[in-house]
Every structure is written in C-alpha cells, then in structure tokens.
Amino acid sequence: MQKILVVEDDQVLNAGLCYNLREGGYEPVSAYNLEQAQSAFSAMEFALILLDVNFPEGDGFQFAGYVRERSRTPIFFLTACDMDADIMKGFDAGADDYMTKPFNVKILMQRIRAVLRRYQEQPREGQNGERYFCGNLMIDFEGYVVKKKGTPLTLTPTEFKLLFKLCRNPRIVLTRRVLLEEIWDAKENFVDEHALTVQMSRLKSKISDDEYSYIKTVYGMGYQWIGEKHE
C-alpha cells in the first residue's frame, strides 16, 4: 500500500484527508507541522507528499525545496493561497500539482492518482541500457538519470517525462495540447493551466546554458527539441 504524507496543521482537515486517502486505498501519515513532516520524510519512504503552504513556523515552499534536494517524491500542494504568484511559486519549488482550497474531494483524489500514474509510468524506451547523448547532456532513459557535463541533474518525474517526449521527437513542434493531454491527463481536466509553462521553464533552466539551449519555444504553438542547435 502506497504511503502518502499529509502535511496540514488543521487537525480536522488533516483527519478528513487521511480518511479519504484510506478509502482510496492509500496509507496516510499525518504531520501537523514542518518539523514532524521532516522527521517523517527522513524516517519513511512516501509515494507522494500532500502539502499545505502556511505554517506558523515557516512555509511549505521551503519544505518542498528540502524534499526536492533529496528525492524525486511527487509533491502536491493543497492550500488556500490561490494567487497566480503563489501557484507559480509552488511549481518553482518543485510541485507536481497544486490545488487550492476549498476543493472537491473526488477531483483531489483523481488528481493524486494522475500524479502517481505519471511517476510510475516511467519511459520504457532504452531498456537495453540505451543512453542518449546531446551537447553536454547524457540521458539514461532506463536509469532515469540526466547528467550535464558529467554532473547529475535533479529532475521531477514530470520534468523527465517532458524531456523524454521532446528529445524522442526531434525537430517536431509538440503543441501545448499534445503535451497537456499526454502528460497531464487534460482530457479529464485534472491539470492547472500554469503547469506546462512553469514546468517547461524549469526544465529549460536546468538543462540549457550559454552553449546549448536544446528546447525552442514556438510561440503560439508549443515546444520543439532542437538539440545542439541554438534557438
């Protein structure tokens, strides 16, 4: 049974979330502050972290950064902060999804399942240990490893799937709709409108440099893998 860490200081809401997660077939673990969250994260392995933003002793963005430095564990923000800037900050902190309060429990559970599915459905190409070299990047599709100039990069599952999709379709403009439907289950509407823009921007910032840009933004259409060419 997959463990989900529920980091929420409202005890009633925390209990309600845990109840619904148990009903959905998951094993929830409650944390009511960031210290408890960090302790639980250090002691156990989680399939996903459901995380509030506002805590008396700090904010969830900081904890998300702490997690992302150490793990690819999916992070799902669930918070009352509904300003665009807050949502963007959540994705910049390493979130895989972001939902604002109040929320529909059924939709929340569907989106949690969608995040976990993206994490579990790792790319299958390169099963014979195939590695893809481009510019100063080395991408091991089987090992889920990306190195830049020999240094490993920390990518979220969503960022890796975007990278996989792009570099497996070189010189083809992948529209926003295609990427949303294939990676964020947009046909079921379980996607935040900012997700693709923010995740793509973060991916580009991690892999590109002054020498190689790799990904070209085709304004009004989508994105294109240009490899070693300059945008």
UniProtKB/TrEMBL annotation:
Q: Give yes or no: UniProt keyword Metal-binding.
A: no
Positions carrying 4-aspartylphosphate are: D52
SMART domains in alphabetical order: REC (SM00448), Trans_reg_C (SM00862)
Q: Which Pfam families match?
A: Response_reg, Trans_reg_C
Domain Response regulatory, chain residue ranges per copy: 3-116
Indicate the residues that the entry says bind DNA.
128-227
Matches recorded under CDD domains: REC_OmpR, trans_reg_C
Name all OmpR/PhoB-type domain ranges: 128-227
Arranged from A to Z, the UniProt key words for this protein are: DNA-binding, Phosphoprotein, Transcription, Transcription regulation
Xref: InterPro entries: CheY-like_superfamily, OmpR/PhoB-type_DNA-bd, Sig_transdc_resp-reg_receiver, WalR-like, WH-like_DNA-bd_sf
What does this chain do?
May play the central regulatory role in sporulation. It may be an element of the effector pathway responsible for the activation of sporulation genes in response to nutritional stress. Spo0A may act in concert with spo0H (a sigma factor) to control the expression of some genes that are critical to the sporulation process.
PANTHER family recorded for this chain?
A: ALKALINE PHOSPHATASE SYNTHESIS TRANSCRIPTIONAL REGULATORY PROTEIN PHOP (PTHR48111:SF73), REGULATOR OF RPOS (PTHR48111)
Under what name is this protein listed?
Stage 0 sporulation protein A homolog
Task: List the source organism.
Answer: Bariatricus massiliensis
Taxonomy, top ranks, is: Bacteria, Bacillati, Bacillota, Clostridia, Lachnospirales
